[in-house]
Amino acid sequence: MAGAERLKKESDKFLFGEFWTAKQRQGHPIHHTVSYRASFKPELPSFFMKEFLHKKKKVVYDPFGGRGTTAVQANIEGHFAIHNDIHPLSIFLASARQTVPGFDVLVKKLESLDLKKHIPEEEGDERLLPFFHPETLVEIKNLKNYMKDDISPEMQFLGLIALSRLHGHSTGFFSVYTFPQLSIPPEAQRRNNIKRQQTPEYRDIKSRIIQKMRRDLATPIPPFYHEFSKQNLYTLSSANNVPSITSESVDLIVTSPPFLDKVDYEADNWLRHWFLDIPKNSERKLSIFSNITDWNRFIQSTLKESSRVLKKGAYMVMEVGEVKKGKEILNLDEDVVDMAKGTGLVWTKTYIHTQTFTKLSNCWNVSNNEKGTNSNRCVVLRKAN
């Protein structure tokens, strides 16, 4: 094939446009119960479910499950979900919404808990007191203890709401003014307190949990949601080796891998880890890569494993972006296409959903056309028949 003809054929595989709304928080409120860095909008998996699944009751899989957006949206749209991630926090965020209890049931459960029971001071409290008033910290610890002994859906959901209120920049959070999406170090918070001339004041956690639940549960979930969510599978594995998923059992994959050295999930979530009793684990290698060679190697092995679990003829959508490394802009979708060769997956097209960064994105020091990703670049791969 002549070079010009080949380039023309490849250019036809790139689709540009606004395929879903650029507005924020347009999906079901249950998606926004808790924040998580580097999450995509629910409109993204919804678009591709409608594009590639023409019947209900299919199996949708996300090997980099994150906050659980793909799994929750699959259940909302009448599909079964498999949620995988190597981060235990991710498994909790997703599985805590496998069952969504009613508001009145949750309030009754919360009111039955005695959160003011005395708890002696413990080693490690000094790390927490820059964020929380001592009486607030007692209430949080009591809730933690109830969660250890009670794994009911009601307690799991209450824990999820509490996690979302743990720290932030308004009086709706349990903490004094701090950053909401990531846990900054205690010494940094101490400096903030001095700079802002603030001291953690007492904040009742029950009222704040109820306020958040009332907002998140204001819109009813679809009546069939639990019919599908009860059969979800949640797996804690690296995306390139998920033995608990049966070969050729998945109808669609929609996912987004970690980009190059953009997020440190361990350090950024240390307060959430404390709340959920997630221990440090030096063997848990969260996928953070400083160079494109290592990233590509990992992506290739993930694509090979994804090909194994996909049904023949089924599709995989991998959302990536362009990343600036020094003066060079790397379009990671091109690397995904290259890495798919020899895995059993064939590139069919790439959707490039253009967008302008929001105010929230700029909070991460991510500016348009400078750092991070400035567009959703969704590579569509198909498993050969």
TrEMBL record:
GO terms for biological process: DNA restriction-modification system; methylation. Gene3D superfamilies: Vaccinia Virus protein VP39 (3.40.50.150). GO terms for molecular function: DNA binding; N-methyltransferase activity; site-specific DNA-methyltransferase (cytosine-N4-specific) activity. Its EC number is 2.1.1.113. It catalyses: a 2'-deoxycytidine in DNA + S-adenosyl-L-methionine = an N(4)-methyl-2'-deoxycytidine in DNA + S-adenosyl-L-homocysteine + H(+). Keywords: DNA-binding, Methyltransferase, Restriction system, S-adenosyl-L-methionine, Transferase. Residues 250-374 form the DNA methylase N-4/N-6 domain. Coiled coil: none annotated. Pfam families: N6_N4_Mtase. It comes from the Bacteria. Belongs to the N(4)/N(6)-methyltransferase family. N(4) subfamily. This is site-specific DNA-methyltransferase (cytosine-N(4)-specific). The lineage of its organism: Bacteria, Pseudomonadati, Spirochaetota, Spirochaetia, Leptospirales.
